[in-house]
Amino acid sequence: MSCSMELTNLETAVAYMFSVFMSKQGDNGKMDKWDFKEVLNKELPSFTKGKCGDEIFRSVDLDEDGYVEFREFALLVATYASEHADILQALVAAYKSA
Ligand SMILES: [Ca+2]
User: Fold this and answer.
1) How far is ligand 1, taken at its centre, from the CA of residue 73, in Å?
2) 5, 11, 25, 43: which sits with the fewest CB atoms below 10 Å from its CB?
3) Per residue in 82-97, pLDDT tens?
4) Rounded CA gap, 20 and 35, in Å?
5) What molecular function terms (GO) are annotated for this protein (predicted)?
6) How far apart are alpha carbons 70 and 20 in whole angstroms?
7) How far is the CA of 92 from the centre of ligand 1 (A)?
8) Long-range CB contacts (< 8 A, 24+ apart) of 47-54?
9) For position 4, what pLDDT does the model report?
């Protein structure tokens, strides 16, 4: 195993996803609805366009505790990626041309 801390692009993407969650989690280690909706608008607008933040929150909060845990957040991102090939292709094209 390498001792280098150089990250691959995929590791960077996963680390960024975790850092987004960490920046908005409360003292209980979870994201409340207000911060979750802010993250949706700021970080995932391509996937959430035209959708209701409250509905997304209800579908993401799998244990129905009123908060989003990292596991629930990661599942949301993975679900968006796996179920929206059209959006992903547009994002990849934009990424490659940047
Ligand atoms: Ca929850």
Assistant:
1) 9
2) 5
3) 999 999 999 999 989 9
4) 11
5) calcium ion binding
6) 10
7) 30
8) 47/80, 47/84, 47/87
9) 73
In the reported structure, the alpha carbon of residue 82 is separated from the centroid of ligand 1 by a whole-number distance in angstroms of: 21
Could you give the CA distance from residue 44 to residue 84 in angstroms, rounded to a whole number? 12
* Nearest one of 88, 72, 5, 86 to 32, comparing CA atoms: 72
Encode pLDDT of 1-57 as tens digits: 556 789 999 999 999 999 999 999 999 999 999 999 999 999 999 999 888 999 999
Tell me which of 2 and 66 has the higher pLDDT.
66
**Span from the CA of 71 to the centroid of ligand 1 (angstroms):** 9
Distance CA 55, CA 48 (A): 11
In the prediction, which pLDDT does 50 show? 86
User: How many whole angstroms separate alpha carbon 10 and alpha carbon 44?
Assistant: 17
